[in-house]
Specification:
Elements (H helix, E strand, L loop, with lengths): L3 E6 L3 H12 L4 E4 L11 E2 L8 E2 L7 H4 L15 E2 L3 E6 L5 E4 L3 H8 L3 H22 L9 H11 L3 H5 L5 H11 L11 H14 L4 E2 L4 H13 L3 E3 L13 E6 L3 H6 L7 H8 L6 E9 L13 E6 L3 H12 L9 E4 L14 E9 L8 H11 L7 E7 L1 H7 L36 E3 L13 H15 L7
Parallel strand pairs: 1-2, 1-10, 2-9, 6-12, 10-16
Antiparallel strand pairs: 3-4, 5-8, 6-7, 11-14, 11-15, 12-13, 13-14
Helix pairs in contact: 1-9, 1-15, 3-4, 4-5, 4-8, 7-8, 7-12
Length: about 475
């Protein structure tokens, strides 16, 4: 069998980022994937009826342009292109108002009226200084290169989203803020939940919330094409249960969550390290619905149909209350729903004149409950007649999501809860969290900093650690 310097397990964005970083430095690498196709969280398939392409998990990609690593790759030369909706986010309220996240920050200030100045003070530092902030936030905890800037950002980012909401006077501003912060998939009363909201709003103004043409699979395909152009090799249908089954190699890099790592034989991990992995905490799960539709969704406010993402949950207090209940293990009748209709902006997703739509809500981790009715009822609240447009649907509960992608433990798509205790100390309390107790085994999944999202930074930092540890090579993003 051929020998490799490094084998990377898992073909999600982080697995590809690790493999690309190592291959660029002249190492011989093999990337292995257990499923029959590459992509991890960036797969696109025909789930309902032929001709309708649906993103399995990730659909809208705020971090795609904001990722320092992805922006360093020539992925456009390998077929990747994006489109943008007129609005980044829409958040309709039953009162008749709709909060809109505009790309132009001055337009955003006008949109929020009396709350415009408070919003500007919150997100403008990210808009103006994202490149510097990214260096200090999208990786392991280190002494910052820009300590004053990070300290100023941290004063707001460390706060619970519920505290920041108190700065806004209008329900429209509070609701819009709550919907974006809820992307963190944890109670909005948790510390650090404001970090998610501030960053996603800020990069929405700087880069937008882009939509990949052809589906999220296009991201995986471009990463694969670039990786192969460097000489990298890929093997699919390769479920790893024992390290001994792999070709001979020096380094093993795992784009896997702690529970998966614990099931692999032959890793020779120390008992204390295994105990730390066993204590790693998962977050809420999600219930996912994909639809094939006869028409665009008939939102009462037509601007919702022109937004990359629509948040459905009415007021800030309703979102906060339901997210808290869900986190405590309860099912709610009006869940917070994240919705997108990519076919409005990308006509490759559905047959001419038809449409696809995508949505999920948060549920207790591991819940098998079918939440289709509750998600569709939420849509009917803001888009009467939506159900009449449904041609077909496909649903996935937390168990089905985990079967499809074993990284989604109990339906947790963030690779573990990203609260203050696991924001940077994930998956273990180590200064360099990509290392394990075995000097030849590393972790590069979203269970390492900076956590969930399609950005590839966990993979880059893991590979950077490998190169420093074993080859005395220091790499930086160019």
């Amino acid at each position: 069998m051929k020998q490799y310097d490094a084998i990377v397990v898992g073909s999600g964005p982080n697995g590809f980022s690790a493999a690309i970083t190592l291959q660029r430095q002249g190492l011989s690498t093999l990337l292995v994937e257990g499923a029959d196709s590459i992509g991890g969280g960036t797969r696109t398939k025909e789930l309902t009826v032929p001709g309708f392409k649906h993103d399995i998990c990730s659909a809208i990609h705020p971090m795609a342009f904001a990722s320092p690593f992805f922006s360093s790759l020539p992925l456009d030369e390998f077929g990747l292109s994006f489109t943008h909706a007129p609005y980044q986010v829409a958040h309709p309220l039953l009162s008749g108002e709709t909060g809109i996240l505009h790309r132009d920050i001055e337009e955003m200030v006008r949109e929020l009226g009396i709350d415009g100045d408070a919003y500007l003070r919150l997100v403008e530092p990210v808009v103006n200084n994202w490149e510097k902030l990214a260096n200090d936030t999208m990786g392991p905890m280190r002494f910052p290169k820009n300590p004053l800037l990070l300290a100023k950002f941290g004063l707001d980012a460390l706060q619970p989203a519920t505290w920041i909401a108190g700065r806004f006077k209008t329900e429209k501003a509070r609701a819009l803020w709550g919907g974006v912060a809820a992307h963190g998939i944890q109670p909005l009363s948790n510390f650090t939940t404001s970090a998610i909201g501030i960053v996603l709003c800020g990069i929405g103004h700087k880069y937008g919330w882009p939509i990949p043409i052809g589906g999220s699979q296009s991201i995986a395909n471009a990463l694969s094409a670039y990786y192969r152009s460097l000489g990298g090799e890929i093997a699919v249908d390769y479920w790893l249960t024992d390290r001994a089954d792999l070709p001979k190699h020096k380094i093993l890099v795992l784009d896997l969550t702690p529970q998966q790592i614990l099931k692999i034989e032959g890793l020779d991990l120390m008992p204390n390290f295994k105990k730390q992995l066993q204590r790693y905490r998962q977050g809420m799960g999600v219930f996912k619905v994909d639809w094939a539709l006869s028409n665009p969704v008939p939102f009462t406010d037509s601007r919702c149909g022109q937004a990359a993402t629509v948040h459905l949950g009415d007021t800030f207090s309703e979102i906060a209350r339901n997210e808290q209940l869900t986190n405590s293990g309860q099912l709610v009748s009006r869940p917070f729903v994240l919705f997108s209709q990519q076919s409005v902006f990308d006509d490759t997703r559905a047959p001419q004149g038809k449409h696809t739509a995508w949505a999920y809500c948060h549920v207790p981790n591991g819940s098998r409950s079918d939440r289709t009715e509750f998600i569709e009822n939420q849509l009917e609240r803001y888009a009467p007649g939506f159900k009449d447009t449904i041609i077909a649907r496909s649903t996935m509960n937390t168990r089905q999501l985990e079967m499809y992608n074993p990284n989604y433990i109990g339906g947790d798509i963030n690779g573990g809860v990203m609260d203050i205790f696991q924001l940077y100390t994930r998956p273990t309390w180590r200064f360099t969290p990509y290392r394990t107790s075995n000097k030849s085994v590393y972790i590069c999944s979203s269970s390492t900093p900076p956590g969930g999202g399609v950005h590839g930074m966990s993979g880059f930092h893991a590979a950077k650690t490998v190169l420093r540890d074993h080859y005395n090579i220091s790499v930086e993003i160019q």
